Amino acid sequence: MALGLAPVVARSAAASGVLEALGNRGLGPVLDELQDSVVLLLGNFSGGNLDRLLRIQAELERRRLYPVIFDFERPPSSDYGETVRLLAGLSGFVIADMSDPRSVVMELQLIVPDLAVPVVPLMSGHDMPVALFADLLGKYDWVLPPMRYRDLKDLVARLDDDVVLPAQRKRAELRERKRTAAMGQASGPLRHS
Question: Does position 46 have pLDDT exceeding 90, yes or no?
Fold first, then answer.
């Protein structure tokens, strides 16, 4: 066999599983399953902020969710912004720790205008929202009001009622809104150009 005629494709176990699922059921159900369980965690990793994100990650895992902290090397096939948008699009919701929002506001600017995915901002009681974030909060209804907490213990105690449940309710609302819009487009009159 000549070189180049039989390309070798190496796939990880995860990629093989996704391809198998796609082959058996189609993309829609696979995306729904991912979005039912994946949560993107955004935040600044300096100081004690990473410790807070890791604690949130552990608490979400205990709730059978799959939180992703974007602290890994981006794939060579996409830039930073593309990677953040891809992860957000696969997530059921995003938790944005606004404690020291250097890059978080930029990441939200990449996500929020184009992806209707619920975003739950976290702010300690004394933090004030930065102007760019306030613009997003007022313009897009999938950016939920900031969840203000006193300390990590308070945040963990209120995680279900004030973060996870509101995000899941907003996701269900957005899903219904999209379904209704799609049905309206499908049943509308055909237009010829």
Answer: no
